[in-house]
Amino acid sequence: MGLIAYSCPYVPAEIIAAYGLTPSRILPSSGSFSGPVGVTAGVCPYMRGFINSACASSEVDAIILTTVCDQMRRAKDYLDQRTDIPSFMLNVPSTWQTAEALRLYVSEIRRLGHFLERMGGQPPEVDAMWRIMESYDRKRGKLRSLKGVLPAIEYSLAIAKFNKSGRIADTGVNVPFTGKGIPLALIGGPMTMMDFQLVEMVREYGGDIVLDGTESGERTMPARFNFRHSIHDDPIEELAECYFGYIPGVFRRPNSELYRWLMRELDSLKILGVILIRHTWCDKWHAEVCRLKEWLKVPLLDIEIDGESLIVRNSCRIQAFIEALS
Ligand code: SF4
């Protein structure tokens, strides 16, 4: 079965699976330079890591990108000019409050379907599509039940594993996790596997990440599907509601849902400080730094990461931030 790689949470895995192909949302191991996106100034390390690791895998048959940022748009040029891997650019509108924006997203999902057909997929019957959505919804329900049971970062890793392979690890844990450090949240763009080491740094200095609000964590899971449908209802419209109409993203205009989500979680988890993980050259998150500082009721630490190392400077700043909160 053809493996279709992507990294954006607005790509519904269900549509790829329904066409008989294998969806795989990849978190790169780092911002590796080895591949079609080499050493180039002005490139987001996450985009570089994603494209290079997808291209390095002999299993990947095609790559789906989205228009959520200029870096990912640029990634399409790298793929077209420097590789022969087929790729598809899904247009995800920035505005989201109008029926037209939702309709545009629905039409983009249908256009994605035509691309998947060209990749060897078969258009699904409506019933089969609903069944696949039910299966994903059930698995995500199981994943959600791990919130609060696993430490926040292990929860994110379980989500990442599910996004990559469709599998859920049996944790064998059913007692709620209680951290002992200062409760902190992460917010920001997606993390490479290397960036997860930052959590160790936080732990070492007496902090405890109790919420992962980065793009790799729970924030970007779609809503639960509504299965009270008739056989005439279009499953793609339900997919669109639960992905496009629900996931709070930084690129959205307005992106007030992101702030609402954050406020709810910070209050309920009694979080004392927020660490923003921002990739070098990521305009989307850079533009939010001042607003977040003004808006948050707790201190914010803005950390820039370059995809190569977690930088000694960050270690000192994390230590000072946690000490100031103690
Ligand atoms: S981290 Fe920012 S610039 Fe990089 S791919 Fe994500 S949104 Fe785009």
Description:
- It is a single chain.
- By secondary structure, this protein is an alpha/beta fold.
- It folds into two domains: 3-127, Rossmann fold (3-Layer(aba) Sandwich), CATH 3.40.50; 152-235 and 247-325, Rossmann fold.
- The chain is built from twelve helices and eight strands.
- The strands form two sheets. A four-stranded parallel β-sheet has the order 2-1-3-4, with helices on both faces. Strands 6-5-7-8 form a four-stranded parallel β-sheet, sandwiched between helices.
- Strand 5 (182-188), helix 7 (197-204) and strand 6 (207-214) form a beta-alpha-beta unit.
- The relative contact order is 0.15.
Helix content class: 40-55%
Number of self-contained structural domains: 2
CATH architecture of the largest domain: 3-Layer(aba) Sandwich
Strand composition percent: 5-15%
Strand order across the largest sheet: 2-1-3-4
The gyration radius over C-alpha positions equals: 19 Å
The CATH class of the largest domain turns out to be Alpha Beta
CATH topology of the largest domain: Rossmann fold
Largest sheet, in brief, is: 4 strands, parallel
Q: Quick one: overall form?
A: globular
Uncertain ranges: none
For the record, give the distance between the C-alpha atoms at the N and C termini, rounded to a whole number: 52 Å
Order of helices and strands: EHEHEHEHHHEHEHHEHHEH
**Secondary structure tally, helices:** 12
Structural class: alpha/beta
Mean of the pLDDT scores?
93
Bound molecules: iron/sulfur cluster
Number of DSSP strand runs: 8
